[in-house]
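[job 4417] fold queue: 2 targets
>>> target A
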Amino acid sequence: MTEEPPEWGIRRDALGIHSLSKLEDGKRVRVLVTEQNVGATSEPTLRDLSEALIAVYGTDYGIHSPTSISRFTDMTRQAAAYRKGRLLLAGDAAHVHPPDGGQGLQTGVQDAVNLGWKLAQVVKGTSPESLLDTYHAERHPVAARVLRNTMASIVLRREDERTKALRNTMAELLSMDEPRKRFAAMMPGLDIHYDLGKGHALLGRRMPDLDLVTTNRPLRVFTLLHDARPVLLNLGEPGGFDITPWADRVQLIDAKYVGAWELPAIGAVTAPAAVLIRPDGYVAWVGDLRQMGLADALTTWFGTPAAA
């Protein structure tokens, strides 16, 4: 940009929200501008951007040499089903919404990670095709919530007096610890809870990336998932678990963890004796050396036990 100094930051008016911000290199500028007329179906051009800037700021600041130009709307859509036979939808093919909060990326990535290991097991014959039905059951409600809160965010952009009052009320609520923690966990998807039945607060939630101590070396929980293999993490007496029928599919790790257990949005939870972690990082079973329900969880998520 050249000519007069730009009006940096966010600007709101009757058209909507706009912003001009410098990128880290100090040479380029990120531009967000709401157009006067919606519904254009062609790819946006530099001329379109120039005209939109002039309409809002009275100048286009001599803008030139764009690296990319894109156009988005407040369109909000979701596929009714994520699976139909051999057809599977994920990411933007399954759900589209405004980019408010940057939630689309993490939602799409978690779709892929949730589906990937399940699809691999079905393709290899480890698990039945019915495992793929859990993809829709788990991920569809997550995206539906993202669509709801992005629609709410769009409403808060309006500049009428009633919306300003609502926006101020929301800002006041988010100055409080509890609402702020809930929204901070929701926006990046850290509060997702898959319904895997009743039990420990960890069940169906994302496993924290704890600093573990093993007999060989210290390590982080998530390093155990780098090979996309499930993990039975024994935090109690070493050698107490026998998962031989699933040993070709599931890692058994004896480890210790000294510290508090805390989950986003929930807070402190009781330390478990053992957890079964799926390849996508979510906890499929919580228990102890009595192993109640462990064989069922292993069979449900990782296939029938191998013959002796």
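>>> target B
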Amino acid sequence: MQVTSVDGKTYTAKVICTDSLADLALIKIDGKDFPYVKLTDITPRIGDWVLAVGNPFGLGETVTAGIVSALGRDIGAGPYDDFIQIDAPVNKGNSGGPRSTWMAMIGVNTAIFSPSGGSVGIAFDILADTAKRVITQLREKGSATRGWFGVQIQRVSPEIAESLGLEKAAGALVSEPQPNSPAAKAGIESGDVITAVDDNTVSDARDLARRIGMMALSRFSRVPSSCFSVSTTLMPLSLSVARASSICCGVISSEGMIALSCS
């Protein structure tokens, strides 16, 4: 692989590892003292001005400007979709380029929506915080691990919400816990509605999948081994569960629920 900088210098690089679910790769470039942009921890606001940097259609270094149009977009790319939508012109060749405010990098260009193949003002970026977590795991352990506790889930309809006494149709309905999974060992049942994770409200089934998946990206422990690898352990997390006749709260780990109480 060859990487060409803005001043025309060419460097040899190699792919260290990739994560297809996040559409990110970690590469190593032979060289030193490269300039860089800082990945911010702050989620941008709708309406914030942003810059997109890339090499559209191979024309060369290009910067375009626009605003953040929306957050939390699901474009059907995978189970953990959580994209920033922006209206700055982005075309083929912009993927992988930084998306920045005036002070820091808020995302990575990854996709566009276009019936023609060119920019129509709808582009999508990976959040900088997601990129940071994924790249940290790729660098430190060679792969990105996501949380899993073993349930098949679906949306909560207004009828289901009413039958459970929920104020609104939100959360994730458990259609079936998978055999021998942490959820099954915990006592999670078909028909339960997971309404919160770590005291953070779950809006729908896809939101739950994103929250659980991201857990392991921020909660992992390094364990020395005989080769260059580490083991990942999902730390306990708290769940709020609505059941047909009660509300349950508990803490779940990779081995199952430590405590589940219903009232």
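[job 4417] complete. Note on B: Residues 219-234, 249-263 have pLDDT under 50 and may be disordered.
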